[in-house]
Every structure is written in structure tokens, then in C-alpha cells.
Amino acid sequence: MKVHCQGCAGCCLDWRPLLASSTTVAGVDGDSSDARGNDPGDDDASTASPGGTDAVPSADQGPTTAARRTRRTAIDDVYNLVPLTRDDVRTFLEAGLGDVLVPRLWEADADDDAITIDGYEIAAIAGRPVFFVGLRKVPKPVAPFGRSARTWLPACVFLDPGTLQCRVHDEDCYPEECEAYPGHNVALEAETECDRVEGTRIRRDDDAPPGPGPAIEVDTDPDGSLLLGPQAVGQKVFVHPDPDDLEGRLEGLAADALSAEDRAAFVAVAAASAPGTLSISEPHRERAHQQVLEAASWAGGAADEWTQRAPPGTEWGDPLESLDSATLAREVERERGAPETPGWE
Questions:
Q1: Residue 201 located in a structural domain
Q2: pLDDT tens-digit series, residues 217-257
């Protein structure tokens, strides 16, 4: 498989607001569930779209919203959250990047074990709330899919808004799920973001017409790295041993307003988890908790500044012709020490 990634970043940002701002495409809710979606157990297809200049993702060829609705709903509204493995989390902490990590929890469905925290019925295992750890998404001025105008969209903390490339792609902390994407979705027979945003960006065989940008080979044989079912516990799906410690934190999660202490309460458990079990190493937990609180990385600082730079009441998807992403990226990220991106060959 080959993926043509130049000018896309559909897997690194929330492109759904472009639907609402389009005058030619009917709006959809953009729900999806896959290797990087909202639901830790179900996998389905979402939306597909034609490409072209200023194209936006469309539901014209996709299933209905009712057919696409997932069983479990995340209590946050972060689209396309990348689930980090325990090893990913530890690597980020050792690199001083604990300030870019965030948790995700789900509302339980009727068949789930559940526990009530802050008024939410949270999916649980053995009475312990279940969660992912992912990367923060913050507003950045971007122009994906060949659009001529930039717009504020929620984007991965590591995405360069000018080049639409990942700043840590060649670093040790590059997440396993990002490295395997979109191969995991293909293995699950689920739609990829490449399919959703522009069908020509992905080629499943050499006879397919080429897409824009350089070709990137994708490993479609996950070789056990998908971590589905019980093997995911302690590796990608974590359980918090102290539900009472989470009281008062979930409202902040739902409002994207978690404090460092709130994030540390979850991240430390993930870093201290034992694969395949519900066990937690308390020494590892204490160390990880402190690493989150002490983190002061370029990425965390940039995330805070991007949030401040986005004008109050920002309408996601509205075109902003005068914004210079390259200049802003230099001021907000590069001057803090962000790695350069390689550019497109």
C-alpha cells in the first residue's frame, strides 16, 4: 500500500468543521470508530469524499449516521485521538514531554461494567474506569487538502501548521500508532482518514491511479501490534485503580480544561501499568506523576500559546486569508526549540 500524504494531515487534525463551512457539501456529524477512533472495541466505516481544490470530506458515499453510531461515546470531543502504548507514554515522559499527554474515558453502554464519576457513567473493568492516553490537540491555522485559505482547526500538538508534517516523525517518541497508520485500519477492514478526506491519497494496489505528493509505503500486516481485546489491557487500554481520586476531574476533561495535576493522575497510571494485568507499580506511578508535573517542553508551551492565539469565539472552519502559518509556527514553535520538518521531496 502507498499513501500520498503531502498537503493532507487528515489523520493529524479535526477536519470536521470544514464540512459545516462548506456551501457545497451537506454537513455530517463525522462520528467514526477505528484503530484511532472513539470506541475501544468497535470498528466501522465513516465518511468518504471526492478530492479537488478546496475539497472537504463528505458523507455522500458513506453509510447513514445511525448506522455509523458507535456503542461507546468519549466524554471529550477530540477527533482522531491517537492511542499511545505504555511504552510510548514512558518514552514521552523520559523526553520531558509529559505536558502533551491527555486521557480519554468513555461513557458506558448497557452491556458494560460501569462506575459513576462526576455524574458520568464511565466504562470500567472490575469497577475501575478504563482510559486511553493520547496527544493534545490545539487550534492551529492550517490549509489541508489543497485549500487556498487557512483556517483554525484543532490539530496535533506536533503538527507543523505550515508544512503539515509531524515534528517528531523521526524521533524516538514517534507514536507506534502513527507509525502503523493507516495499516491498522486496513487490517481491520475499516475506512482510513485517507479514504475519508480524499480517496486518491491511498493506493491499495499498483494499478490504482497515483495521488498527490510522494508515495509512502505502508505496512498492512500488523504482526500483533494492533493490541485488541484482553492483550490491550495495560498496554494501550488502562484502568485507574483509585476511582475516588478522579472525582472532580472529568468535567475538566469534557471541557478540554485539564490541569497538569489532572493529567498526571491518569498518565502516571498508564506509565505504571503491567501488560495484560490490572496491576500498577507504585514506584513507577510516583515517578511518572512527578515527570508530568515537572514537564515544561517546547510542545507543551506551544500548545498553551496556540490556545491563547486563537481568537475568542473562533469559528472552526472559517477561512482566514491573511494568516501566515509559517511565521506563526516559527514564533510559537521553532523559537521554543521545536524540531524542523524535512519538507516534501
A1: yes
A2: 887 776 666 766 777 889 999 999 999 999 999 999 998 88
Is the Cα dihedral 51, 57, 60, 62 positive or negative? positive
**Do 25 and 19 touch, CB atoms closer than 8 A?**
yes
- Alpha-carbon gap, residue 50 to 44, rounded angstroms: 20
- Within a domain: residue 345? no
Q: Tell me if 342 is assigned to some domain.
A: no
DSSP state of 233: B
Helix axes 282-294, 86-94, angle to 10 degrees: 50
- Return the ∠ at Cα 201 (arms to 196 and 204), rounded to 5°: 95
Sign of CA dihedral 300, 262, 72, 218: positive
Cis peptide before 17 (omega within 30 of 0): no
Nearest-Å Rg of the Cα atoms of the chain is: 19
Q: How far apart are CA 221 and CA 134, in angstroms?
A: 23
Which structural domain, as residue segments, surrounds residue 159?
2-336
| Cα–Cα distance list, 71 to 38, 44, 116, 129, 304 (Å) | 9, 11, 18, 17, 33
Cell of 121: 457513567
In a domain, 341, yes or no: no
Q: E strands, the chain, where?
A: 2-4, 73-74, 101-107, 113-117, 120-125, 128-135, 137-142, 151-156, 159-160, 165-166, 202-203, 215-217, 238-239
Residues 91-142 pLDDT 10s: 999 999 999 999 999 999 888 899 999 999 999 999 999 999 999 999 999 9
- With bands split at pLDDT 50, 70 and 90, how would you rate the model's confidence at 278? very high
Number of domains composing the chain: 1
319 three-state secondary structure: coil
User: Dihedral of CA 165/169/173/177: which sign?
Assistant: positive
* Residue in the structure block whose three cell numbers are 469497577: 127
Three cell numbers at 282?
Answer: 507504585
